[in-house]
Structures are given as structure tokens and as C-alpha cells.
Design goal:
Blueprint (H helix, E strand, L loop, with lengths): L4 H12 L3 E2 L2 E2 L6 H16 L3 E4 L5 E4 L4 E7 L12 H16 L5 E6 L10 H7 L4 H5 L9 H4 L17 E9 L4 H5 L3 E7 L1 E10 L3 E2 L11 H15 L9 E4 L3 E3 L5 E2 L2 E10 L2 H22 L2 E6 L7 E2 L2 H14 L4 E6 L4 H5 L5 E6 L15 H19 L1
Parallel strand pairs: 5-6, 5-7, 7-18, 8-17
Antiparallel strand pairs: 1-2, 3-4, 4-6, 8-16, 8-18, 9-14, 9-15, 10-13, 11-14, 12-14
Helix pairs in contact: 1-3, 3-12, 8-9, 10-12
Length: 399
């Protein structure tokens, strides 16, 4: 298999042009830049001699004949996204599948999953393909502007097939990704072989109080929804202390306060509360703390507090031992002394695909540990090293 690093980097930079914003990219699922990027991917699939297949969820496959190894990731971005997050794994998959097809090598296919970054639900495309949620359920997911997934996906209808690709045609799945953390960069290492992916849960929390005049309503008489939300955030930090480890995380990533005026006591506050850990039992204990805090705040403030599960729970996932072994052997050949085994604290489509087949993941460094930001970057030498390691492992596994 003769991979072409220059072609790989050129395609990676070309994908960057769809939605380019300064040094970063804004390419939300089913936005015009995303649709244009998926049309371009279909053109590359045809040029490589693979068979394009765009399924009803918007996942784009480049299929080799017969049973094959699948490589890929996602090509949509965060609202302010870096240029490599997900895109790296898609273009690496394209390059390896194209290189193998070009020399009559083992059959390798690639995929770009849709809406991994959560405009509608997070991991939505692989959720649907893996059977975690139905197409009908996903169609009801809505973004922050109220646009539904079922409406948005019609923008790609001109390329969509009516059926989904049968997962049974794939022997396994490999995903290469930037680390999105500082470990490899700080250690001066080139690649990381992923051992496991964290589990994740998320609630949509709503606090309802009494909207009122900010100048005439005494503090002691207020039912201020935002103050209740702030109390939840503060209490969680203290109450989690005896439950979590340094690797446990929980996040309130955005807050909506209604009606959002400086002279009005807010009557409603809404926020998503997400928590992640590698241990399923600890996720349970963290949830117990969260629900207890919400109940306490409701009782003490008189606010109406509700919590709705946002999506199906993602359980912690161990990577396949055979996949890890193949990636480790290739890393020792191409990055001897400059690689490590490591867990992933970020979620990836591989979590869902693991329900269907063996999965493995490879990381490359993120400069400064920065991701989900326009400043996200990786040295081109590390990108090529990652591609080389992935290609060797893929050839071993595909055979």
C-alpha cells in the first residue's frame, strides 16, 4: 500500500476550505458548508474507484467491494471548531482506502459520520446507524434554533440512498483523531493507542420561578431561576468531591435565561448538564449527587426544577485487544519510543460502532492540548506519522 502524504495533506487542507473561518472551521451538520463538503467527498470516492453511499442519516461511505475494514470519523464541526477535529480521521480513511484500492490491496472502506458534534444530538449519525436510536426518533431532534434533524437532512436528499449500509459487511472499525488534550504534546510523543473511551450522560435541567421587576421585588421575596441555577453549579463542586477522581468531569456548557433582560428577575433558566467517567458505577454515583442537589435546590428555593434525559446513555467502551495490538506494533515501527497507550476522555463515533464490530482508535498530538477552538492545530509531521501508523495497522487487520 503506497500512501501519499502530500495528497493526504492536500485533501485535508481542501476539506478545511469548506466553512473556513480564520484559522478554524464552522461546518455544522447539514449547513451549506457541510453539504458542499459531503458532495466533494462523494466526488473523491468516485475518483478513487470506490462506491459512494450516502445513507438517510447523512453518513457518507466510500465502499470497497466485498467484506472490508472500515476507517473514518466525522467531518462536521463545533460552532467554533478546529480544522482537524474529525476531519483528520475522514481524510486518513480516504487516503488509506484509495491507496489500497490503487494497488489491488485488501478491501478498505471509509466513512464520514454525520452530526457527531451535536448540532442536533451528538453522535447522531452513528447513533442511527448503530441502532441506538431510530431514524424517526432522530428526526425529532432539534437544534437551538428549533430546526429539526428530519428537516435539515433534506438538504442532502439529492445524494441519499433509501437504505443503510449493512454493518455486517465490515470486519472492524478504525478511527484516527487528534487527542484534544495535552498529554502527547507535553510528553513530546507522536501517537497514542487508545485503550478505552469514557462513558457520558446528559440531562437538560429547567428551573422555573417567578418573572418580576428587578427594581421593586425584594431579594427575600424573589423566586429567581438564575440564582437557583447558580446554586446548583456551586453545590455540585462541593458535593462531587468525595465521589469523583481527577479524571471525572462534569460540565454546564451553556445557559438560557428568560426573558434575558437586565431589569427583569428571570423566571426561567435552562442548561444542559453533562458528566463523563471511565467507570460506569461512578457515573451512577455522580448522577445520584446531581439529582440530590437538584431536589435540594427545588425544596429550598421554591423553584420548580425538572431534569430530562437528553439522549441514550453512552457506556464506557474498551477498545478491541486485537486492534490495539495492531496499532501498537505499527507505532513501535514508525514512532519507536514516542508513543503510549492511553484512554480517551472525549466521545467518538467509535463508541457507537463498538456495538456492531471490533473498534480501535489512534491519537495524534494537539498542540497545547487545545481543541473545540479555532486555535486547534497539530504539526504536519505528526499528522503524517499518524497516517503511516494507521495505514500499517489497517493493512495488517484488513488482511
Amino acid at each position: 500500500m503506497n500512501i501519499d502524504p502530500d495528497r493526504f495533506l492536500s485533501d485535508l487542507h481542501h476539506l478545511r476550505s469548506f466553512g473556513a473561518t480564520g484559522p478554524g472551521v464552522v461546518r455544522r451538520a447539514f449547513s451549506p458548508p457541510d453539504i458542499a463538503a459531503r458532495e466533494w467527498l462523494v466526488d473523491q470516492i468516485n475518483a478513487a474507484g470506490l462506491a459512494p453511499h450516502v445513507d438517510p442519516a447523512g453518513n457518507v461511505f466510500g465502499l470497497a467491494g466485498g467484506r472490508s475494514l472500515l476507517i473514518g470519523s466525522h467531518s462536521d464541526t463545533q460552532p467554533e471548531g478546529g480544522w482537524l477535529d474529525g476531519a483528520l480521521g475522514v481524510i486518513a480513511g480516504l487516503e488509506i482506502a484509495r491507496a489500497s484500492a490503487g494497488v489491488g490491496g485488501p478491501p478498505i472502506s471509509f466513512v464520514s459520520f454525520q452530526d457527531e458534534e451535536g448540532r442536533f444530538g451528538a453522535l447522531t449519525g452513528s447513533d442511527v446507524w448503530s441502532g441506538t436510536v431510530s431514524m424517526a426518533e432522530a428526526d425529532q431532534y432539534a437544534d437551538r434554533d428549533g430546526v429539526r434533524f428530519g428537516t435539515a437532512r433534506q438538504g442532502l436528499a439529492h445524494l441519499m440512498a433509501e437504505e443503510f449500509v449493512d454493518p455486517a459487511r465490515f470486519s472492524g472499525f478504525l478511527e484516527m483523531h487528534i487527542e484534544q488534550g495535552p498529554v502527547l504534546d507535553m510528553a513530546g510523543e507522536a501517537v497514542g493507542v487508545v485503550t478505552s473511551i469514557v462513558g457520558s450522560r446528559q440531562l437538560q435541567v429547567t428551573l422555573k420561578g417567578q418573572q418580576n421587576h428587578a427594581g421593586t421585588t425584594p431579594m427575600a421575596m424573589r423566586r429567581d431561576a438564575f440564582q437557583g441555577a447558580a446554586e446548583v453549579a456551586v453545590r455540585l463542586r462541593g458535593r462531587m468531591a468525595n465521589v469523583v477522581t481527577p479524571e471525572s468531569v462534569w460540565t454546564i456548557g451553556n445557559m438560557r435565561v428568560h426573558p434575558g433582560a437586565s431589569s427583569i428577575v428571570p423566571g426561567l433558566a435552562e442548561f444542559p448538564l453533562q458528566w463523563r467517567d471511565r467507570d460506569g458505577d461512578r457515573l451512577d454515583r455522580m448522577e445520584d449527587v446531581i439529582r440530590a442537589v437538584l431536589d435540594e435546590v427545588a425544596e429550598e428555593t421554591g423553584l420548580e426544577v425538572t431534569a430530562r434525559q437528553m439522549r441514550a446513555d453512552l457506556v464506557p467502551v474498551a477498545m478491541d485487544a486485537g486492534m490495539q495490538a495492531a496499532l501498537s506494533k505499527a507505532a513501535e515501527v514508525h514512532a519507536a519510543g514516542r508513543w503510549r497507550s492511553m484512554p480517551s476522555g472525549a466521545l467518538h463515533d467509535a463508541s457507537n460502532v463498538s456495538r456492531l464490530m471490533p473498534v480501535g482508535m489512534l491519537f495524534v498530538p494537539s498542540i497545547g492540548g487545545i481543541s473545540h477552538d479555532f486555535a486547534e492545530n497539530t504539526a504536519e509531521g505528526d499528522l503524517v506519522t499518524g497516517l503511516t501508523v494507521l495505514a500499517e495497522a489497517a493493512e495488517r487487520l484488513a488482511r
